[in-house]
Amino acid sequence: MSRSQFDPANYAAQLAEKQQRLIELLAPFNAPAPEVFESAREHYRLRAEFRLWREGDDRHYAMFEAGDKHTPIFFEDFPIASAQINTLMPRLKAAWQASSALSFKLFQVEFLTTLAGDGIITLCYHRPLDDAWQVAAEQLAAELQVSIIGRSKGKRIVIGKDYVEEKLSVAGRTFSYRQPEGAFTQPNGEVNQKMLNWAFEALGERQDDLLELYCGNGNFTLPLATRVRKVLATEISKSSVNAALANLADNGIDNITLVRLSAEELTEALNEVRPFRRLAGIDLKSYDFGCVFVDPPRAGMDPDTCELTRRFERILYISCNPETLAANIAQLSDTHKVTRCALFDQFPYTHHMESGVLLERR
């Protein structure tokens, strides 16, 4: 998003355009009107990444327009980022300006924060990190009350934790999440909370089991598990799986089995194409799946995984790309119909949108 796109006065019009776009994409499937969940106009983004641009003896937070890596746009604050990031930015800049141990060959800064107030700052360098850096970084972490991670080629030094702790409220219950540095997390915390509550309501209270594909760190898994008998969840990213396992333990949820498999591999397992050692001891036939929950990457579900979801009575689908969502619905539309849909404005002032649909067997 460029600075020129940030225009809170035009937010309602931009959101209306997204709503109309989603309606048009889902019109061939006779979808109901989408429920629309707005974002805050500013201070909504919990992550931010900046290059550091040097002019003379000073380094500035910088970003670039798409396609232009030579004309930096300097920032002293960043209104779409969380209030916590905006508070940290000048304090961090003052720290590197006062310390050559922190500033020498520093080229990138990344912030990760949470609604709960936790934070990590990642400092990226074109040099090895030495003892002087560690001493300065430990002092900085204490002053800013955040974790600091230093990255250089082949090296990562963690001062504090390598994850932030988030707390999200769903249907009156608070769930805690570990969100690792470098792993995917939803950038708009308040809208993420709205998505969780919508999915919780759309799933409903059930007496059967849930299959979840692309579960990440368990963002949806935790609250949805309280609505069903048991859950089989899959995720391919090792860091996300480790975070999800910690989140299950931290929240005392014991009806979830988590397997490190891709959606394509689980499709092969359920179709009995080939066995997987990571499924050893798991009796797939013991599950009574009544619903499948999917939150795929921008490419959507591949055709085989899409065919796998067809065998379920209900498909609950969260999408970050409405075009691939529409393509997947087209593949399923002869057996399933859209009974609910929603627009979640995770990314204000951009064309990107998050959406959700519930498909039920005809």
What is this entry, summarized?
With 362 residues, this protein is an alpha/beta fold. The protein has ten helices and 17 strands. The strands form three sheets. It has an eight-stranded mixed beta sheet with strand order 1-16-17-15-14-11-12-13, sandwiched between helices. A seven-stranded mixed beta sheet has the order 4-3-2-5-6-7-8, with helices on one face.
Structural notes for this entry:
- The chain is an alpha/beta fold.
- The protein has two domains: 3-41 and 188-361, Rossmann fold (3-Layer(aba) Sandwich); 47-163, OB fold (Dihydrolipoamide Acetyltransferase, E2P), CATH 2.40.50.1070.
- It contains ten helices and 17 strands.
- An eight-stranded mixed β-sheet has the order 1-16-17-15-14-11-12-13, sandwiched between helices. It has a seven-stranded mixed β-sheet with strand order 4-3-2-5-6-7-8, covered by helices on one side. Strands 9-10 form a two-stranded antiparallel ribbon.
- It is globular, with a radius of gyration of 22 Å.
- The model has no long low-confidence stretch (mean pLDDT 94).
